[in-house]
Specification:
Layout (H helix, E strand, L loop, with lengths): L11 H33 L5 H26 L1 H20 L4 H29 L2 H32 L4 H4 L1 H15 L13 H19 L1 H4 L2 H22 L13 H21 L2 H8 L4 H28 L2 H20 L7 H27 L7 H34 L6 H6 L1 H6 L2 H33 L10
Helix pairs in contact: 1-4, 1-5, 1-7, 2-3, 2-4, 2-8, 2-16, 3-4, 3-7, 4-16, 5-13, 5-15, 8-10, 11-15, 11-16, 11-19, 12-13, 13-14, 13-15, 14-15, 14-19, 15-16, 16-19
């Protein structure tokens, strides 16, 4: 392993601050927009399309992550970061000027095209300027950004739409992004070696086509119906063409060496599992709290925030654990915490207090923070500088793909169980989530519906537990060595 640029940047703390600002800008985007969507829909209309405001952003972001990672290795981190952040800020400005839902969806796609650069590039830049031993603590700082964004985002979004025009939730990104770019332009200097190579357009096109078709089929399976099968077939064809191209290309999108790396294999599989297991909490725990428990959106958000608090705390602790023990021990411990947290969800019942759901989310967050940080550092610390960008991007892409797969699989499990248990009710979850519809139900009918929905959600949590157990097996692939300088 070589660290060409580590220790050569004199003002590393400014580089770290620039990366944290950029990551905060991308992290807060999802939560702040979710809070403002009712106001946006009231102004623009198009409620039936509102799901695409989120899906298209996640789709274009996920598709471009590996491409930006590879370009960062070939062209340089700074140039690619500026391109991606520039696209993100331009998309943010355009979103504020959207006059109807169709334009907003188009501009959100543009935003996502830029956002695909921010996550992998910030993590790669930080890995470039800090030594392997220092990276553990720094990744804890980066992880804390997500915890802060999860709490600040909804509050900021609510305050902005209440006192100003909703366009400000997009425009607030602009000064943050500009400050981040200025700081990197001033304080981050790169080694210009091994630059100027070109990435093959054909490989990028096949990758984007395969991933777009796959994620669209997974994220929109319910609304697309049988059309999703056509998209899955397209994903298979494009994926096979990508593999053929990669074998023949002189400059492949994914260098062959990364597929022979055991730490990278563990990092990709581990993040795939983490992303899938996470959706059992993020997507379905609020349904339990608001639907089954009759809690408020604030209570559901507070419980989920506990996961965002546990994640950076465990991420910071994992660095010390890796120095004291090994990558493998830390990953195994994180997997056990993830298993314990998801098992706690199976103990939820109709009378469970909200704090118990929050505690479960916190334990899950600690497990995810510990495993994700360990997988990331094991990959970055064993990757040559020339491929560190694509290695970092690939494991982040795996987590996004896992989230989409987890959402699709657990959504299908929930729908199948509801159809089996409540065949006479149309959209029972909607009926208990809507207060007017809930009040129209008889006491006996409501109790039966709550019991059956609770059983159905337990099956979702059981799937999440199985995935968490898989992360324990994957953790055994991580090197049994200590974090070194």
């Amino acid at each position: 392993m070589t660290d060409t640029t580590a220790h050569t940047v004199t003002h590393r703390h400014w580089v770290l601050i620039a990366c944290m600002l950029a990551m905060f800008m991308a992290a807060i985007e999802v939560t702040i927009v979710a809070t403002a969507m009712p106001t946006i829909i009231a102004d623009l209309g198009g409620f039936s399309q509102f799901g695409w405001v989120f899906s298209i952003y996640l789709l274009t972001q996920a598709v471009t992550v590996p491409i930006y990672g590879r370009l960062a290795d070939l062209w340089g981190r700074k140039k690619v970061f500026f391109i991606g952040t520039g696209l993100f800020l331009l998309g943010s400005v355009l979103c504020g000027f959207a006059s109807h839902m169709g334009w907003l969806i188009l501009f959100r796609a543009f935003q996502g095209l830029g956002a695909g650069a921010i996550m992998p590039l910030t993590s790669t830049i930080v890995a470039d300027v800090y030594s392997p031993k220092e990276r553990a603590g720094v990744q804890g700082w980066l992880s804390s950004v997500w915890g802060v964004a999860a709490i600040v985002g909804p509050l900021t979004g609510a305050w902005l739409v209440q006192h100003f025009n909703w366009a400000l939730i997009f425009w607030v990104n602009v000064p943050v992004g500009i400050i981040s770019m200025l700081l990197l332009a001033r304080f981050f200097s790169e080694n210009p070696s091994a630059r100027g190579q070109r990435i093959r357009v054909a490989g990028s096109v096949w990758l984007m086509l395969a991933v777009s078709a796959l994620l669209a089929a997974l994220l929109q399976a319910e609304s697309l119906g049988y059309w999703s099968l056509l998209l899955l077939a397209l994903a298979v064809v494009a994926g096979s063409r990508l593999l053929r191209h990669e074998r023949r290309a002189s400059e492949p999108l994914f260098p062959p060496v990364i597929w022979r790396s055991r730490p990278l294999l563990a990092g990709n599989l581990g993040n795939l599992a983490i992303g899938a297991a996470m959706m059992g909490i993020s997507a379905f725990l609020p349904t339990w709290i608001q639907g089954v428990n009759g809690g408020t959106p604030l209570q559901a958000g507070s419980a989920l925030a506990m996961m965002s608090i546990g994640w950076p705390l465990a991420s910071t602790l994992s660095g010390r654990l890796m120095q004291w023990s090994s990558y493998r021990f830390t990953a195994l411990l994180g997997s056990l915490l993830l298993i314990a947290g998801t098992a706690m969800l199976l103990a939820l019942h109709l009378g469970s207090p909200i704090w118990y759901a929050g505690l479960s989310a916190f334990v899950i967050g600690t497990g995810m923070g510990m495993t994700s940080t360990t997988f990331l550092l094991a990959v970055q610390n064993n990757a040559e500088f020339s491929i560190r960008g694509i290695c970092t991007a690939s494991i982040m892409f795996s987590r996004m793909l896992g989230s989409a797969l987890g959402t699709a699989v657990m959504g299908a499990v929930l729908n199948y169980n509801l159809l089996l248990r409540l065949p006479d009710y149309r959209d029972p979850v909607q009926q208990i989530m809507s207060h007017p519809q809930r009040e129209r139900l008889t006491e006996g009918g409501l109790q039966q519906m709550l019991a059956e929905i609770a059983h159905s959600l337990h099956w979702v949590f059981a799937v999440s537990l199985v995935i968490a157990c898989a992360s324990l097996l994957i953790s055994r692939l991580v090197p049994a060595q200590k974090l070194h300088h």
